[in-house]
Write a structure and sequence with these properties.
heterodimer, A: 441 residues, mainly alpha, Arp2/3 complex 21 kDa subunit ARPC3, Hypothetical protein af1432, two-stranded antiparallel sheet, 16 helices, 2 strands, 1% strand, B: 427 residues, two-stranded antiparallel ribbon, 18 helices, 4 strands, 71% helix
Chain lengths: 441, 427
């Protein structure tokens, strides 16, 4: 079925180029320049966000062709995508892209003429009258592109694209796409003055932007990796808690997504989850590894760890809301937590998210005094303490997220021989085994 | 933002301005006075163009950005001013304004755009503004006489070639001035500062130059509407650069903050990592290291003790210079292992790993960054946060005695020059 669809798109694209002429009044030099440019654009997509969305300047080139050459020219320029040399594309994908862009270019060109535009190098008096037909052409190009792509996704992915991918993918990128479309108009407008060189003048700033974005993405990944590595360094002392930060970060993000945080806040909570226990460094190892009941001073040292964490990360300017999450991740809904004893809504939202994630990972990990609990049991435990220790909203969100996304608990660890000293004998994160404290007499 | 914090720490503000900066600012000031006076006397030709381009310059100045290394830049303002300089026609009428008018319009636009920044109390680097203005002025003085003689620029490729050459020359001159100022302010070598400057400014400079020509040509076709439309590609570039510079600052901030883990954990004396990194960076510059190398050195210096986290308990006293060589090597090795896990800082990990190697005059020996960290760390272990001059002299003396076996003599000499400057600055 998918193959039939792709075949139909390719055939339609080809037919448009071959049959629907006329070819007589096409400027072949312009056509060649734009086709090569489109090919270059398609072969070098720009990553526009760390989530690996990419953007190509290809559609602006097709729109320039719409203005300069009309529907057939635009279709031929679009078809150039079939000769894309990127290695990660299958030959079927390449053919489909070529057919799709040819069809989309032809439709955009036809609409452009119908809306009152003239094919050919714009005369100096054609502004601003050209703006309306150009905008209509840009919308058409986008629309045809999306419809054809959604069609192929529907047929190739088993479940079909969900309505959220459609909303976030199509609608979110429509506005920027139309913004970038303006570059097509710029290239066409300058053609009369500097000929094909107009593409160079327009593309130099875009290439530089592309370079800067690539640098940005690389730096952001490096930042993330460095932060993770440094957080891991804190955990190396105790092999039972290895990977804890990373998993709490992951679980916090799952909850945040479920509740519907904005992307920036999801990034922030990712960092907060990663850094939440960094203050444990300020707690003497002896206290962390003590197996018996703690004295009040020792318990006090443990209760201080969120503040010590804050002390370390306070200078990281971008953390903002994450700082509150780190400081308050051991508060309880009933007000009996630490360090400040906040209750209910007084506890920052980030802290309530991290609290649930933190306890859950502790329960599903092996500890020296018990084995790892199964996920179901840990969830039951979370539900049991919802309201008293945890925010029920966060617990519900986490349960819902767990239903959709499988949780991978850490590999069970066994204490290596001879290192028995280097293990915590009790875990301050574990709600089922609270720290034992010797009260003062 | 951290960048301002850095600027305060590194670059002195008004009272102690370098002589180069003063020269630059007074040159720009005199030029502006002359330009405004002459324009006022001769009258403005093409009032609407002047207002439109002046407004663009003001807007660009308002939305200026900081490039990596805390370099102030205003791409849209520069592109607008250059476009006004390169303007040949607006729609169907010629644009015969003089070079002096270009300078006057640009200066007024810049001042108007800078006012909100001043009102908000943000630090404004006047020398950067002066530099931007002088670069535009240079192109204007060379190009406007040509523009008046339209015969030469009749063919678009001639015009394009002339514009490209002029913009490139102006950009080079700008980089040279910037490097001179920076070399003086940061005590770096001029050659190194210039290549740093060229590397950082090249991409944005190309985008600004291309956009300026784009606008100048487009104004001939579309009139002043071109300004709004054709600034779009540069706007995209500017947004991308802002994010890039932002994440670099964030990255450094994170490493700086997390380097304090060793202090909160009681492994080293409070402030040790920061003092060692500041000292190491100063020594690196003194030895003529390039900016990317200095950044790597800074990361390595900040994290040089991170290996201590992997030890079960703090080493008493924490001062690693007094610890046995075997322990030093182990801390360095563990630290490098932590950093290597990030997967992106392998060179930094290598610097940290080899910081414990004694110098012994060996060739090739440990990398220069490792040798710098070793000496800076030794110095700080002996001096700490004390500002006592005697103590610094005694510590340097001890490092010098060890140069045969432990420390690179070149590094120790650079260190003593840096330390000497610091204590004389304090007096």
């Amino acid at each position: 079925m998918a193959r039939v669809y792709i075949g139909a798109v390719v055939a339609a694209g080809g037919l448009v180029v071959l049959l629907l002429g006329p070819f007589a009044d096409i400027a072949w030099l312009t056509l060649a320049v734009l086709a090569v440019l489109h090919l270059i654009c398609e072969a070098s997509p720009v990553p526009i966000s760390p989530q690996r969305h990419t953007w190509t300047a290809g559609s602006s080139v097709i729109l320039a062709a719409v203005v300069l050459l009309g529907p057939v020219g635009a279709a031929i320029v679009g078809a150039a995508a079939a000769f894309n040399t990127r290695r990660d594309l299958h030959v079927v994908q390449r053919m489909f892209n070529g057919g799709m862009w040819a069809l989309a270019g032809y439709c955009a060109g036809t609409v452009y003429l119908a809306a009152g535009g003239h094919a050919g190098v714009p005369a100096s008096g054609s502004f601003p009258a050209i703006l309306l037909p150009f905008a209509v052409a840009a919308i058409t190009l986008d629309f045809v592109n999306y419809v054809l792509v959604i069609g192929v996704l529907w047929l190739t992915q088993a479940a079909g694209p969900s309505s959220t991918t459609f909303r976030s993918g199509v609608l979110a990128s429509l506005v920027p796409d139309l913004g970038y479309a303006i570059f097509g108009l710029l290239m066409a407008a300058l053609w009369r003055v500097v000929g094909p060189f107009s593409t160079v003048l327009v593309f130099v700033p875009l290439l530089v932007a592309r370079w800067a974005v690539a640098q940005y993405v690389a730096q952001q990944e490096a930042h993330q990796a460095t932060m993770a590595a440094l957080c891991q360094a804190v955990e190396t002392k105790d092999f039972y808690t290895r990977g804890h930060s990373e998993r709490v970060s992951k679980a916090s993000v799952m909850i945040a997504r479920e509740i519907g945080f904005r992307p920036e806040r999801i990034e922030a909570i990712r960092h907060a989850g990663m850094l939440h226990d960094i203050g444990k460094l300020g707690v003497p190892t002896v206290v962390l590894q003590k197996s018996g009941a703690l004295t009040e001073e020792e318990y006090g040292a443990i209760q201080l760890h969120p503040m010590r964490g804050l002390e370390i990360v306070r200078e990281i300017g971008f953390l903002d809301e994450a700082l509150a999450g780190i400081m308050h991740h051991h508060e309880r809904m009933d007000g009996r937590g630490y360090p400040l004893g906040l209750a209910g809504d007084e506890i920052p939202e980030f802290a309530r998210v991290i609290g649930v994630a933190d306890a859950f990972d502790s329960m599903t990990s092996t500890r020296s005094y018990r084995g790892a609990r199964p996920v179901e049991e840990a969830v039951a435990e979370l539900c049991k303490w919802a309201g008293a220790q945890f925010d029920p909203v966060m617990v519900d969100a986490f349960v819902a997220a767990l239903r959709r996304e499988r949780w991978r608990p850490p590999e069970p660890v066994t204490a290596p021989a001879g290192q028995s000293a280097a293990a915590t004998a009790q875990d301050h994160d574990d709600p089922t085994a609270p720290l034992r404290v010797i009260p003062h007499r | 933002m951290l960048s301002t914090h850095r600027a305060e720490a590194r670059r002195p503000s008004w009272p102690t301005m370098d002589s180069g900066q003063l020269l630059l600012i007074s040159a720009a000031g005199m030029l502006v006075v002359a330009a405004v006076a002459q324009t006022a006397a001769a009258g403005i030709t093409g009032m609407r163009d002047a207002v439109a381009f002046g407004a663009l310059v003001a807007l660009g100045e308002l939305f200026r950005i900081a490039l990596p290394g805390n370099r102030e830049s205003a791409p849209i303002a520069t592109a607008g001013a250059l476009a006004y300089t390169l303007l040949l026609r607006v729609g169907d009428r010629p644009a015969p304004h003089s070079a002096m008018q270009v300078i006057a319009v640009t200066a007024v636009g810049m001042v108007v755009g800078a006012l909100p920044h001043l009102a908000a109390g943000r630090p404004t680097s006047i020398d950067a503004m002066a530099r931007r203005l002088l670069a535009v002025a240079a192109v204007a003085l060379l190009f406007r006489p040509l523009a008046a003689n339209a015969q030469i620029l009749r063919h678009w490729w001639v015009a394009l070639a002339v514009m490209t050459v002029l913009v490139a020359v102006a950009w080079l001159a700008d980089a040279v001035i910037a490097a001179l100022i920076r070399a003086e302010a940061l005590r770096a070598r001029f050659g190194v500062a210039l290549s740093d400057e060229l590397r950082v400014q090249a991409p944005l400079g190309a985008a600004v130059g291309a956009s300026a020509m784009l606008i100048a040509f487009a104004a001939g076709v579309m009139g002043l509407a071109a300004l709004a439309l054709f600034i779009a590609p540069l706007l995209v570039t500017q947004v991308a650069f802002r994010r890039y510079a932002g994440i670099r600052v964030t990255y450094l901030q994170t490493v700086r903050a997390l380097s304090r883990m060793t202090e909160v954990g009681g492994y080293v004396e409070s402030g040790h990592s920061h003092r060692v990194s500041r000292l190491a960076v100063a020594v690196g510059r003194e030895l003529g290291m390039s900016e990317p190398d200095v950044l790597e050195l800074e990361y390595a210096a900040l994290m040089h003790d991170i290996g201590q986290l992997s030890l079960p308990d703090p080493i008493p006293g924490g001062a690693t210079v007094l610890v046995s060589p075997a322990d030093q090597a182990q801390i360095a090795e563990l630290g490098a292992e932590v950093i290597r896990k990030a997967g992106v800082l392998d060179r930094v990990a290598e610097i940290v790993r080899r910081q414990s190697e004694p110098w012994r005059g060996a060739d090739p020996g440990p990398p220069v960054s490792s040798r710098i960290i070793r000496a800076a760390n030794g110095f700080d272990d002996l001096v700490g946060s004390s500002t006592d001059r005697e103590r610094a002299v005694a510590a340097l003396e001890r490092l010098r005695l060890d140069t045969a076996a432990e420390y690179d003599p070149g590094v120790v000499e650079a260190l003593s020059r840096v330390a000497g400057r610091r204590s004389s600055a304090r007096m």
